[in-house]
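Hi L.,

You mentioned the student needs an example of a multi-chain input paired with its predicted structure. This one should do, with 390 residues in total across all chains.
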Amino acid sequence: MSLVYAGILSHAPGITGRANLATNTLVRDAFYNCLEDQRKEIEASGAEVLVVVAAEHFANFFMDNMPAYCIGIGEKHHGPVEDAEWLKIPKTSIPGAPDLALRLAKKVMQRVDIAYSEEWKCDHGIMVPLHFLTPNFDMPVVPCNINCQGPPLTPLTRVWRFGEALRQACDEQSEKIAIVGTGGISHWPATPDSGKINEAWDREFLEQLMNQDKQKLLSYSDEDVYDQAGQGGFEIRTLVAAAAAAGGKGDLQFYSAELPIFAVGCTVARFEISS
Amino acid sequence: MSLYQVQKFLYHLNRDEETQQAFSTDKAAVLSRYDFLMEEYEALHSGDIGLLYVLGVNGQILMHYAVFLQVEWFDYLQLMREGVDNHGPVRAGIYAMTAGGEQFAETLVTSEDSD
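Structure written out for the whole complex:
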């Protein structure tokens, strides 16, 4: 078994870019502390490579050619694509894991059609998690994106299969691998409703996610998600993929809807890795 | 409405420093490369965040245009609200999706997918 850690975390740009505007500093710092704990857990797991399952925000792709799934197989990744001062993360390069990434891509491809990229550009969806999980940006990263932004979107059933395929691929490698899924739950990012969070919906979804309730997780329709959780809710795909990869029950380590300036319910969780 | 063209221009502007420099120097020349309706052209030329939101530009694209224009976060949110007040609800794109799901492309779940 080469998958040594699986978890999830939030990724909104406000988490770093608007940290100074958070008025609830106790909750903000508790969230940051939990992310630091997650970093330590990944380090303690002995993971050599971090696979990040994230959401495309038009960093790598536009609607002229939008893959449902893409894996970054390059030697280096670059980010953030956004204004560095706005995100408060300096532009940098991140080591890839090209050999491993190619092996993972080839294996995942046996079950799910994916694209691949040797010129990966990281937006806040990956840079914010890396800022906390590998602050020196020195851990090799295999980025994976799911289109959660420009409908039509890949069905949740296939997202689950993607997560399972990723797990199967990891299990056939000799390297120790950590996987994190990073997305929002309910949120309305970059709209006039930015900061709105449907906490009840989030908690119900998270309970299903932690319990590996596959039937309920795959029963969400895009129109219901949009109605109850906003367009940002489409990013549950990244979290569902992580759960499918892990296979075991989850442990919700942090959730708060009390940081609206971050424009997302702030979440950290880990999963048991099924045998 | 050519929302696709509007978003593609902004995508290029957000990601390409040469486009940013060219747009700062000569807006009309850069905008002439795309196929806009007059309302879209004027919104882009004047940096009308509120109207661009109403026209349907995705926030993951629009918020970076606001950064390019040096619009602060809370001002960005307010400009979108004023856009709705002045021009009515969002007309197209992801924010115009209805609870009826008319703009969703739900696909049938096949037996292959449900295993």
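You could point out the following to them. The beta strands of chain A are 3-9, 49-55, 69-72, 76-79, 92-95, 115-117, 141-146, 177-182, 247-256, 266-273. The domain at 3-273 of chain A is CATH 3.40.830.10 (Protocatechuate 4,5-dioxygenase; Chain B).

Best wishes,
N.
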